Amino acid sequence: MENTSGVGVLDKVTSILGTLEAGPATLGGLVAATGMARPTAHRLAVALEHHRLVSRDVQGRFMLGPRLGELSAAAGEDRLLAAAGSVLAQLRDATGESAQLYRRQGEVRICVAAAERLTGLRDTVPVGVTLPMKVGSAAQILLAWEEPERLHRGLQGARFTATALSGVRRRGWAQSVGEREVGVASVAAPVRGQSNRVVAAVTISGPIERLSRHPGAQLSQAVVEAAHRLTEALRQP
Which H or E run contains 190? Predict the structure, then answer.
């Protein structure tokens, strides 16, 4: 390893990640590329896998893990939030319902931006509030495109099923009726980052009496368009 920082273990970890940037590698491939002893390379690769910085493909080879995408998305959060205010306001005005933007953090989702309906009965979700990943259309969006192991774990105890998430992936949007709160319905769509990974969920929510028991039929197009505008904002050079 030529580029050293003086902190040996970090240099070795960086060397492993740099090797995997070129594509999946076996343990032998990591040893050959990094010059590490086989036990050292194995120990560090497994530790990185534990923290989801490294994962494995179907052949058991090491590859870059999903946590790197999450960190990359977090680095772009300022751009996302800068665009969210006007996009959510436009979505609220177009649908007449409260609009929110959620991001996943561990086993919960956080409302990071919102535009409330100005008058009448509304679903109010304060910015900064945490909600469970087991209920609601935003939770469905934030889970539907996860890697299989994390998706399976997220479905345990959820109010929605694997079949429902399959439908979400096929349609490109999710809906919920009375999942998070009795009498409230919502529709959500994914915001994607540079790597096409889902980094946030745009939603509108309101009383079932206005949104109906099939809210996606009339409102999904507006929500998907808002999500596309935020995706474009994140992908600008």
Answer: strand 184-192
Residue 90: how many other CB atoms lie within 10 Å = 16
Q: Could you please state the CATH topology (level 3) that the domain comprising 8-64 is classified under.
A: Arc Repressor Mutant, subunit A (1.10.10)
Note the CATH number of domain 72-235.
Answer: 3.30.450.40
217 confidence band (pLDDT: 50, 70, 90): very high
Q: What is the pLDDT of residues 91-139, one digit of tens each?
A: 999 999 999 999 998 888 999 899 998 777 677 788 889 999 999 999 9
Q: State pLDDT tens for residues 142-178.
A: 999 998 888 999 999 999 999 999 999 999 999 999 8
Domain boundaries, the chain: 8-64, 72-235
Q: State how far the Cα of 56 lies from the Cα of 19, in Å rounded to an integer.
A: 14
Joined together, the tokens standing for residue 20 give 């995997």
